[in-house]
Amino acid sequence: MSKNSFNTLAELNTAQGKVKYYSLDALEKQGYAVGSLPFSMKVMLEQALRQQDDFEITQDDVARVAKWDATNVQPTELPFKPARVILQDFSGVPCLVDLAAMRSALARLGADPKKINPLVPVDMVIDHSVQVDFFGTRDAFNKNLEMEFQRNNERYKFAKWGQQAFQNFGVVPPGTGIVHQVNLEYLAKVTMLKDGVAFPDTLVGTDSHTTMINGLGVVGWGVGGIEAEAVMVGQPLYMVTPEVIGFKLYGALREGVTATDLTLTVVQMLRKKGVVEKFVEFFGTGLSNMSLADRATIANMAPEYGATMGFFPIDAESLRYLRNTGRSAAADLTEAYAKAQGLFRTDNTPDPAFSDTLELDLGTVEPSLAGPKRPQDRVPLTQVKAQFKGALTAPTKDRGFGLKEEDLNRKATIRFDDRRRTADDAVAVNGQSSIVLGHGAVVIAAITSCTNTSNPSVMLGAGILAKKAVEKGLRVPEYVKTSLAPGSRVVTEYLADAKLIEPLEQLGFNVVGYGCTTCIGNSGPLPQLVANAVTESNIVTSAVISGNRNFEGRVHPLVKANYLASPPLVVAYALAGSTDVDLTSEPLGVGKDNRPVYLRDIWPTQAEIQDAINAHVKPEMFTQEYSGVRTGTEAWQAISGVEGELYPWDEYSTYIQEPPYFTDFSLAPKPIQSVHGARVLGLFGDSITTDHISPAGDIAVESPAGRWLEDHDVAKADFNQYGARRGNDKIMTRGTFANIRLKNQLVPGIEGGVTKYHADGSIMPIFDAAMNYKQDGTPLVVLAGKEYGTGSSRDWAAKGSALLGVRAVIAESYERIHRNNLVGMGVLPLQFEAGQGWEILGIKGDEVFDIDLSGELTPRQKLAVKVTRPDGTSFSFDAVSRLDTPVEVNYFKNGGILPTVLRGMVK
Question: d(Cα 710, Cα 799) in Å, to the nearest integer?
């Protein structure tokens, strides 16, 4: 309970009776300018005020937030204790592994292992393990779900163990939906009530797109698993007090423009603005012209524009959405609380004080895609063909494909030999013996991802477009792997109610699963004949997906050009069969009357979409589908997990292993050692993503991880994905820096997870080199350019780096989550001073590095880095330590967050 030092506890009459709350208005009357704060900062202030205990959150902490000055934000420490935690299984299973390992460590030390237990509600939604093995048939969903359970039975047993071993830990079983959509449509309360006290719903999640919930007025963002684990066991999340960038929206979208187009425009604008480690808060009259689903689409992609959050305040649309999704009681409480607390926005609300602003007239947004390699690289629909052609010959350093002129005419020939349409056999054809493909052939078209499948406007839009296409007699070419992966079962309900499932199926967009599929790399194999043709010809094929991530090597190993698009455009490009086409002027195909059919002929109007929403999206659908959300399928109910408070580790398991972090754990942290004689493991350019560092998708047979699995009698068909193997450090360490599109400048001209082993100059896999260095006693560093660690909140990108022996990363700039994760694993993040970088400093990567850590470490101090060249000459430069707060310095001294927590519990 709060010490209530500011005497702000008040009472409020609600439909649920009298409740207490910590009044921000009472704080305003004490002279604090609370009323002008951005809504997001008001929530941060409330959580500090309510949880002030003069230990983890002090009176000074509360006062600092209350005095937040938009034009002069001080980089002081801000403790955040969210109300709950949400996990998806790719990152949630490793969290459980760490918690289980901490329990084992406590038991070995003679302490009570049950001290490791979530103190806040934790929900894990199993949504990342479904793979598109079967598609284009009505039984694809059931077959994929069956395969999912076969592959992941051991992981699911482990999840069930966690459900019985830990309090406050619940599981939403496979086949239900995508974590962020389940959160938006069901889990979120917006206002929470505990022990008679009302307060804002806040959370952190182990997926970077946790920010989707910001669209509902809920403060929350993605963190690494190790930070989430600390929050679970009662530790505050410490952060630097953020700037808040106001994004003003006004006007309304034009006919033919979707929420996806708006989102891609916002992503491009904010990435250009530079909002890393900042809050973005949307304001202006344009909010009243936006549905809640449209807001959630924009909030979802906060990681793509680099912000900690993309926040939309609570308003009448928030309440309408709660009621329309079957949460009327939550809407009533939220309305009363938000209005009393000054957290409710109207068009007449004065604009808050922001650190900086930018604005967008919604009427200027145009149809767009993003790609072919980054989500912030928006391409107007009118320019996609020209941009793709330009990318073919553009240098790889400029995010092109680096083809020579003589390569542009390469063709792939698919020779069909039967009519089956599964991923393991040939695709079906209509009397054709072969098809010739060129660069840009769309081999994957997937309506997928939390970003868009939560939005009825674009999902119904895709269905209407499909219906019109079928009526015109259009077909999807047989080489296109089509899939529909709704974010919740409600989507299928309203599509079926609108009689739009059948036309989608006629074009091959059958439901393949309820989970995160193609966007996370679970696209499954291409039909073998297609894969063979692409491999033999080495053409640049395309994927068009309604996702949020299109980083290199993520969607599919054989697909080099990846474009993000709205669901209707996914269907359109599937029909066209290529990205080497201008859909604004060239036909999609020829109709049954032998006349060309253009996109404009079948594009749904806003009125058609809105009528469908009004008629077919019903509150009872949400109530019914979520009534048994934790029950799961018969296959889930049949899983019998192990029991007990300690997990019985199996040394022969290829999925779940006790990690090495605590096996030789001591209560006294080892003194920090300076880095002497370090070698460069990786020398990287800009925009190295967490997918580059720790891929989530396919495990190649010839990779170190693949060789380990084969050595342990696992057949290639049972390799599963890197993401599903995150409970096994032996796989994940071997998979670190294993992305097939990684470009290590130590080995220029070579793609993939290889490096130069400086001891003898040989080229080998990065894992093998790291193990050689470890045997030699040689520490390692990684050097990189701007935006190091862009992308997913993938703690294995930091865990793997630490286990490879990387002592420090030196980069020009970092994405927030990955920097936090490096600190959390005891890896030192250093940042080149402005205007410097490894190229400017003339670093080649064959030098030896020394970093002096002998003095007292302080936040953001400058540290000297000495660089010795092979000829014995040397120079030094200063780098900024990105240990940003005193707490992070303490974490680093302890070797990371989890050792810090464990030592504190034992003491």
Answer: 23
877 vs 866: CA distance, rounded Å: 7
Phi-psi region of 778 (alpha: psi -120 to 50; beta: other; left: phi over 0): beta
The whole-angstrom separation of Cα 842 and Cα 593 is 65
The residues, any chain, with a CB within 8 Å of residue 238's CB and separated by 6 or more, are 77, 78, 79, 80, 885, 887, 888
Average pLDDT rounded to a whole number, residues 489-503: 97
Dihedral of CA atoms 223, 225, 227, 232 in degrees, nearest 10, equals: 110
Read off the pLDDT of residues 824-873 as tens digits, 9 standing for 90 and up.
999 999 999 999 999 999 999 999 999 999 989 999 999 999 999 999 99
Overall pTM surpassing 0.85 (yes/no):
yes
What residues contact 676, with CB distance under 8 A and at least 6 apart?
779, 850
What does the pLDDT look like over 19-37, one tens digit per residue?
999 999 999 999 999 999 9
| The total number of structural domains that make up the chain | 3
Domain of 861, in residue numbers: 663-694+736-906
CATH code (residue 414): 3.30.499.10
**Is there a single domain that holds both residue 591 and residue 512?**
yes
The radius of gyration of the chain from alpha carbons, rounded to an integer in Å, stands at 27
SS3 490: helix
Measure Cα distances from 453 to 138, 356, 547, 676 in Å.
19, 32, 9, 51
Residue 867 lies in a domain: yes
DSSP 32-101: --GGGS-HHHHHHHHHHHHT--SSSS-HHHHHHHHT--TTS----EEEE--SEEEEEHHHHHHHHHHHHH
Q: With the C-alpha atoms ordered 286, 290, 294, 300, is the resulting torsion angle positive or negative?
A: positive
Q: Model confidence over 573-593: pLDDT tens digits?
A: 999 999 999 999 999 999 999
Is 41 a member of any domain?
A: no
8 A C-beta contact, residue 290 and residue 253: no
Whether 113 and 217 map to the same domain: the answer is: yes
Question: What is the rounded distance in angstroms from the CA atom of residue 156 to the CA atom of residue 141?
Answer: 19
Domain co-membership, 747 together with 850: yes
| Predicted confidence band of residue 522 (pLDDT cuts 50, 70, 90) | confident
The answer as to whether 774 is a domain residue is: yes
Residues 584 and 681 in one domain: no
In a domain, 79, yes or no: no
Q: Are residues 837 and 780 in the same domain?
A: yes
Burial class (CB in 10 A: 0-12, 13-18, 19+), 435: buried
Q: Say if residue 303 is in the same domain as residue 446.
A: no
Q: Among 624, 654, 681, give the residue marking a domain's end.
A: 624
Average pLDDT, the chain: 94
